[in-house]
Backbone:
């Protein structure tokens, strides 16, 4: 059932500074994949307090679109994700969080 709200996903990636250039090339491919699969307003931001943390964020129109987005993965997409994870520092790896956007005050 489509609940008609915008879905938001963030993925915090702790990246070794030594891998930054390769990470940025790989995340550019990730952006292409996300947009191909229906994501909107894809962004990459870096934590000012902890520059090793990069956060990928994108929006989808509805929850149904979010589920479809996650069902469109290919083997090449999985390889890209594995490459991005290989740049990660620490034991935790990427931290994915999902949100829904709610209108207030309208």
Residues:
């Amino acid at each position: 059932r489509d609940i008609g709200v915008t879905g938001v996903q963030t993925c915090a990636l702790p990246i070794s500074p030594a891998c930054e250039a390769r990470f940025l090339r790989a995340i550019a491919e990730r952006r292409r994949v996300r947009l191909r699969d229906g994501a909107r307003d894809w962004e990459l931001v870096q934590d000012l307090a902890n520059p090793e943390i990069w956060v990928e964020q994108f929006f989808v129109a509805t929850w149904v679109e979010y589920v479809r987005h996650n069902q469109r993965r290919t083997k090449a997409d999985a390889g890209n994700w594995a490459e991005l994870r290989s740049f990660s520092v620490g034991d935790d790896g990427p931290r994915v969080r999902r949100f829904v956007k709610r209108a207030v005050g309208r």
